[in-house]
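Researcher: Here's my situation. A collaborator sent me these components and asked whether they could plausibly form a single complex. I don't have experimental data yet, so a predicted model of the whole assembly would be a useful starting point for our discussion.
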Amino acid sequence: MSPADRTDPRTSPGTPSPAAANMPAAATTMLAAATTMLAAATTMLEAWLATHERKELLRFLTCGNVDDGKSTLIGRLLLETDSVPQDVLAAVQRDSRAQGTQGEKTDLAFLTDGLKAEREQGITIDVAYRTFATGKRRFILADTPGHEQYTRNMATGASTADLAIILIDARNGVTRQTRRHAFITSLLGIRQVIVAVNKMDLVGFDEARFERVRDDFLAFAAQLPERTYYTVPVCAIDGDNLTGASERMPWYRGATVLSLLETMPVDTGVNQVNFRFPVQLALRPSSDFRGLAGTIASGRIQRGDSVLALPSGRSSRVARIVTLEGDLEHAVAPQAVTITLEDEIDCSRGDTLCAPDDRPTLSDRFEATVVWMSDAALIPGKEYWLKHGSVETPAIVTRLLHRVDIETLEERPAPNLELNAIGRVEFRTARTLAFDPYDRNRATGSFILIDRVTNATAGAGLIMSSEIGHWLDTAQGELRPSLSTVTNGEREARYGQRPATVLLTGLSGSGKSAIARAVERALFNLGRVAVVLDGEGVRAGLSRDLGFSAADRSENLRRAMEVAKTLNDAGLIALCAFVAPQEDARQRCRELIGEGHFYTVHLAAPLEACRAGLAVQNPLQRPTRVYEEADAGRVQNIPGIDLVYEVPTNADLVLATHELDGATCAARVVELLRERGVIV
Amino acid sequence: MLHTSAPSSLAGSEQFRHLELLEAEAIHIIRETVACFERPVMLYSVGKDSTVMLHLARKAFAPGRLPFPVLHVDTGWKFREMYAYRDRYVRDELGIQLLVHRNEDGIRDGVGPVTHGSRVHTDVMKTQALRHALDLYKFDAAFGGARRDEEKSRAKERVFSMRDEKHRWDPKAQRPELWNLYNTRIRPGESVRVFPLSNWTELDVWLYVRRASLPVVPLYFAKERPVVERNGTLILLDDDRFPLAPGEQALRKKVRFRTLGCYPLTGAVESDAETLDEVILELIASRFSERQGRVIDHDASGSMEEKKREGYF
């Protein structure tokens, strides 16, 4: 290429360059003027910066199958936003002519397929990051491949993305991979998704076809946590509905992919509420300066704010927020700063600063969803390095709860997690971690696992919402030694019973308390000793601080179970009447009490019967008003109404309490206890 | 799975500009490296990217000094103005102890781009010299100013990029990088290259130079200079080690450089952009990539990738 071929801004003063075409008219005019009158450049630049320096940054990822035309879509986005330098385009044209993958046409996929080996195989094998900008925004695009075995790459790309584009081939509709993509993006916390139904030219630009694909997709997505989906019919190879409206699809009146990218609110997922500052380094350049350097993971901090160092629990105040250019009055996530404290408290890498009245969970046991990325499977009992914030600690897999079938979302028991599998795992760490659930705080709810032998990054973990709350904090058997001199045998002989906990679970109004009282009476008449714990009673005292969210319900149940366990330890029978809508929580009750002592009785009156007061009722108790309150919109999270009641699949006894009377139900429970040897 | 909606994004007034986000990310990466490695080093090439990276490192540890040395791998063929700038700004003004490493064997054998060609010169004086320096000082982490937008094979590079004991890069065995959690564990003999500017573009770098008022080598600004045109590239006649071929003529043209390397291997562009602001304006209007002037990238398609596998930075 000779220098004369080069586009020189000075030689074409009247025609703004294509890069300038993305700028608003005013800026374009300014730029054109600037190229002729460079003397005034600084003023022009000030003006340009004034409108453009505040460009937002949007990070997004693209996911699609090998053949969905994803590289073509990206290539066209880059091309039409004038992000491809001319010399690069010339090289791509040369390469694609040589390889002839698209006949005489330029294969836009060559713009993005960076590594030689992949180019020869015709597939993208890794995550590639590219940047481009329009007049409105600056973009970082993570290009991740779609084939099945590369779940790990997609999770990687999604971990830093604010938005995802999922490509679907209009001819094939929603496939296994599409479901995989939707699930993973949702799991990693991406809240906005553009679904690009591509290759519309190959289905004759058929509106009905597009609608079918869209409806199929949304039907699947309905099973996932709530996200925003925008569905767009496109033809990436020619650019229809990518950057400009398609004349060939006049029936689509929605926004193009590019205009969605430019106008959707940027939702970075950075939590701006809860201050968390994982200390990366303690800086001590001289004896009179001690600063804590780190990146604010979430929330904001101001000079003078009280802070608490975790896990030590020592408190102090922010004396200064130091930077090279001078102190700051306040700082917000994700700024990287250095904080000095008023008091000399012991605090170093791995510790977390937070606000005293807003603490993360502090624990060495937690449950997480894990995306497995290593050829060597995750196995219960195995130890890994776990990196969370600035902490790197040995961690052991204490339990593998289940594996998720990524296409059907079914949870299945599994002996291990293989490469690209996703599952729920319980961990115990050597060091205590300060964390929040991932869906509240991406920065403090995420971690990676590192193989202790190969040092490979073996998995990515998302700490689950604290629905499980303090279940895992519960001290385990060996930590609760019995100091009693009364033996279990002596208790059994005295009371004529073996200790047991009966969980009566069912919807509000299904007769839980009534039956528990009836059983208590029947056992008393038999000379046995039982105690009733019911939801209302526990909430009136022990759980006065709790509400009715799923997490609080779970915690309420846990407290009741701790009491039941104490009663059992004393040889008594605990009759527990709780809605207990979550299978996971009931399973934890069973574990806490101990197999062989725990019985689930499901009171299976249907919602309508409970609502109408037709199930077993205790004449001494007011009928429930909860449904009326829910109808009036005064209460939320009511199982059966706006919270799912997960029907027990392994109940020891099921009672149709809308068909049976209280005495019969109580007799059946007593019979169960007799059958299982609790009473004789 | 319970989905609790996390508090949403920043209020308008606190929305970060992309430069601030890039700056914070780079500082985080630099600090993480210092916390996790025993002997980090910052490679300093005297160019604009290196200058920005060095400034970010100073910010990361302020008010303290840099907790690692700064290394310049000198091929002996850099532009004279680069050496002058390096000594004046980095050594004298910032007071930073600069390690300068050269391949003495190469110098003894008289290896240079004019006599040996770009490939041999780059391999001996740059790639081998770098490997030798890293081995000599036993550095286990080396910061570099490379950006993903520079070249296609860089787009897939990690922020923490593993090198085996022979400094080789294996594009198939890269570690996934999630969130800002970097796996920094290595075995003895292995090392990492760390790229804090991975997500920056050329324009970002210039906007940042402007914002932080950083001095750069004057070669980035247009000035009438003696050049010769060879194979469509304008080469600056920086000293008398670049003999003209028969028929070639020294010209005086108003030129500047978008990237800086060894002068016989770095093409100039004709330009009137004499100031930083003019350079930025020219860049905004430009339709050519930055590495266009680099002779070494054009040897063959995919050539940068091959160099990296061999241990080129």
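Model: Some features of this prediction you could bring to your collaborator: The first strand of chain A starts at residue 56 and ends at 63. Chain A touches chain B through 115 residues (CB under 8 Å).
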